Amino acid sequence: MKFDSIIIGGGIAGYTAGLRSLEAGLKTAIISNGQSALHFSSGSIDLLSHTPTGKIIRNPKVIFDKFTTEFPAHPYSKVGKGTVFASLKWYKNELTNAGIPLLQQDNGDNHLRITPLGTLKSTWLSQPYVQQLPMRLTQHAIKRIVVVQINDFRDFNAKMVTDNLLQIPEFTDVEISHTNISIDGFSGLKRNACELRSIDIARILTDEDEIKALATKLTAVATPNDLVILPAITGNGMGLKILNKLHSLTHLTFHEVPTMPPSMLGIRLEETMIDLFIKRGGMLLKGDQVTHGDMAEDDGHSGELTLKRIYTRNLETMPLTADNYIFASGSFFNKGLIAHHNKLQEPVFDLDMNNHEERNTWYSPQFFADNSQPFLSLGIKTNHRFNPMLKGKVVNNLFCAGSNLGGYDPIAEGSGSGVAISTAYHAVNQLLKNTKNSHLQHIASDSLA
Amino acid sequence: MDLVSTRFEKCIKCTICTVYCPVAKANPNYPGPKESGPDGERLRIKSPEYYDEALKLCTNCKRCETACPSNVNVGDIIAVARGKFEKKKINPKLMRDYILSHTDLFGSLSTPVAPLVNKITDSKIIKTIMDKTVAIDKHKSLPKYSFGSFRHWYKKQANTQSQFERQISYFHGCYVNYNNPQLGKDLVKVLNAMNIGVKLLKKEKCCGVPLIANGFHDKARKNAEFNVKHMTDAVEQFNTPILSTSSTCSLTLKQEYPHVLNVDNSKISNKLEFITSFLLREFMNGNMPNLAPVNKTIVYHTPCHLERSGLAIFTIELLRTIPGLKVIVLNSECCGSAGTYGFKKENYEVSMKIGKGLFEQIKQANADFAITDCETCKWQIDENTDLETIHPVSLLAQCLSE
User: Fold this and answer.
1) Do residues A414 and A79 make contact, with C-beta atoms less than 8 angstroms apart?
2) What is the secondary structure of A191-246 as a DSSP string?
3) Residue A301: per-residue pLDDT
């Protein structure tokens, strides 16, 4: 079967590429091996919180030019400032228009969000009920924080959040406490309520009466002047509707934090992107996996390779073909990269990696070291267009995007989703240059402008 | 310890399966696939006492497996555990489960007297009685039987079919044989228009899926062995592909036999093919029948088992080859019927809750027909929306230009 573009991988990079590809009028397929790591994510979009050398970044846009000069091999430097910010603006609009508003600081600064551990992390775009604290934390306006423990719910620990928040010097004058609330619906269950995960509670909280009961209990423990920290326990296909309802009933200021998997905040992003992709005519191959592909020497470009076709587990002998392919297969966790005893491998095409060193250089022995873990920066070696290489030969119609790329550390830098979105967006711009269709080239030049 | 029982070790406890479980979504008392599958399996290996009766709430839709990022066969683990540990209680529900699941037995009894049976099962009084006695929900209409089976009709065609140089073998399944022979006839018409003749297996029994779902694993295994034998004979004798028009029969023959029933189908596995996959490949190789343009809009629903097989792409691309047809593909969700599940009084409410989202999507699509590859999805959509639901092959048959 023939497509204009096929995207391998259904995570934030894959869906971004898929949506952009559809937008350019291309016949597009995404192959997704199960749901993505967004289910374990904060649901905020990180752009750049720290430099690779560990310096805190307040405003990514302001330092961007300096950053690219200093770290020319970083994916952001290859994508370029214009496309990085255009891609994030595009992503923000897409999700916002589809009912998941992504908000940011007016001055383009990062903001701090309170994590499930009660620590602070900086990010760039957040959902409406994630409280955005200023990077200059002394300027925060919080008077009182109430951390809500849902009785029997084991994936969130209000006491720990409270204890950690109390350690933050800028919160010395803030009154911080935690309180317990029960959910009425738990009592009618035939199951033990302590077995419930966030998604189970989200399902109970689709009931009108349950929401009203919860609202009453919340109003009893907090006032509209407080910041009320809630575990993220709403969603399940209803996006933010339940939280909006809870807010309108209580007038409280909520801050929702993701819990142990699954993260309702991340699920909202993935659900929304899948829905858009299918509605706009994209072909989604769910629960399938690319096993291998056929490469051939490209006639036009001496010494380069072209990916001719790919094979999947479910389609067996029936290959899929496309003019261009985007490879957004994820990192080690997603099996987009594999660590063997003595080498790192990209398992689908066996593409060249950006590292040949000994195993003991992949990691630092301190798991929770302050500096980054080297393996997080390991990945597929690519050229300036993000084309990978196979035994030194460029594959000119395959474009890498997201966390299978080497050369950056999503965790230490706080750059994972930003790199995913911008490299995917960039990849579609690049593949449009490969296409001979003049109409599409027109779109490409528009996007690049 | 066999292969299936240790497969849970790939589970990383991420709970994604439970997010996509239609039953857990509609019924908070169902522990969900993670607890029922990989989590529970660890305990059940320790002692069968840990078997939880709530596992019978699983519809075997396999959406957990489609969603799982670690490729754990969550649904298989649950199905195997049910086969091993589920205790059959002697009560009227057992009789109901027997009737609902033994589709070929009751099909062969009913088709000769179909008009009478249909009239009886359709009457309000009988529905109320069935609701009160054997707990078949009174809101449901039992599937209508056809007056005369597909095999019976085929007998007269066998000669004509054997004239074609190219042949396929058709596993028609109970639905085509007893409920909707027209679909089988449509298939013959479409394949004949492509110069391909249709053979039937010498004999076939129900693929076994309703038996698995209702806990009659021994009977299902017997059927599987029977079918594998006859499919092997067909392959050895004629070397034909074996095609199925039912997404569920197809998944069962190919995947459930080895994974759930432990029946080896490896000799014929690569010959088993779902109809739309076969047709699309033929079309792409230039063997496409003449199709008259249709000025219609259809809304396509992907059945759970086709989604799990990963073959929906074939049906969708096939539909897109029909000239003039506007194809709306829905973001797939379970219809709630899940085979025999939705017919049961104790499941009816949950079944409707599961299907609600799909019915809404279909209503909003503003289409002329709904298209789906699964018979029980068809019944469910027919019953709960205003659209007539037809199989892609029947649509193709209607589009053939004379």
Assistant:
1) no
2) S-GGG--HHHHHHHTTSHHHHHHHHHHHHHH--TTSEEEEE----TTSTTHHHHHH
3) 63
For B389, the enclosing helix (H) or strand (E) is strand B388-390
Instruction: Compute the distance between CA of residue B322 and CA of residue B318 in angstroms, rounded to an integer.
Output: 7
Residues of chain A in contact with residue B16, where contact means CB-CB under 8 angstroms, are: 34-35, 39, 261-262
pLDDT(A444) > 70: no
Mean pLDDT value of segment A328-352:
93
Partner-chain residue, chosen from B14, B29, B71, that has the shortest CB–CB distance to A190: B29
Among candidates B15, B25, B313 on the partner chain, residue whose Cβ is nearest the Cβ of A261: B15
For residue A312, the one-letter residue type is: T
Q: Does B43 touch chain A (CB under 8 A)?
A: no
Chain A interface with B: residues with Cβ < 8 Å: 1, 29, 33-37, 39-40, 185, 189-191, 195, 197, 199-200, 203-204, 236-237, 261-262, 267, 274-275, 278-279, 281, 283, 285-289, 312-316, 318, 334
Q: How far is CA B235 from the centre of its chain?
A: 23
Q: Which residues pair with B388 in a beta bridge?
A: B369
Interface of B with A in 274-293 (CB under 8 A): 277, 280-281, 284
Residue A327 burial (CB count, 10 A): 34
For residue B280, the chain A residues in CB contact (below 8 A) are: 1
The tokens 């007016």 sit on which residue? A106
Nearest CA in chain A to B315: A283
- Which residue from A200, A274, A314 is facing B310, i.e. has the nearest CB? A314
Q: Touching check for B364 and chain A: CB below 8 Å? A: no
DSSP H or E stretch at residue A411: helix A410-413
Peptide bond into A262 cis (omega under 30): yes
B26/B236 Cα distance (integer angstroms): 47
- B183 CA to centre of own chain: 14
Whether ipTM > 0.90 holds is yes
Say whether A191 and B32 touch across the interface (CB within 8 A). no
Interface test with A, best of B39, B250, B254, B313 (most A CBs within 10 A): B313
Residues A39, B14: C-beta atoms closer than 8 Å: yes
Nearest CB to B313: which of A33, A274, A283? Answer: A283
For residues B226 and B205, is the Cβ–Cβ distance under 8 A? yes
pLDDT beyond 90 at A280: yes
Phi and psi, residue B29, nearest 5°:
-80, -10
**Where do the H-state alpha helices sit in B332-402?**
345-365, 375-384, 392-399
Contact criterion met (CB < 8 Å) for B29 and A1: no
**Which residue would you say has higher pLDDT here, B56 or A418?**
A418
Contact B14 A237 (CB under 8 A): no
Interface check B316 vs A, CB under 8 A: yes
Q: Where are the beta strands (DSSP E) in B29-181?
A: 166-171
DSSP B157-208: THHHHHTSSEEEEEE-HHIIIII-HHHHHHHHHHHHHTTEEEEE-S-----S
- Per-residue pLDDT of chain B (402 residues), as tens digits, is 454 466 788 999 999 999 999 999 999 899 999 999 999 999 998 899 999 999 989 999 999 999 999 999 999 999 999 989 988 778 778 878 887 788 878 778 888 888 888 888 888 888 788 788 778 888 877 788 888 899 999 999 999 999 999 999 999 999 999 999 999 999 999 999 999 999 999 999 999 999 998 888 999 999 999 999 999 999 999 999 999 999 999 999 999 999 999 999 999 999 999 999 999 999 999 999 999 999 999 999 999 999 999 999 999 999 999 999 999 999 888 998 887 888 888 888 889 999 999 999 999 999 999 999 999 999 999 999 999 999 999 999 999 986
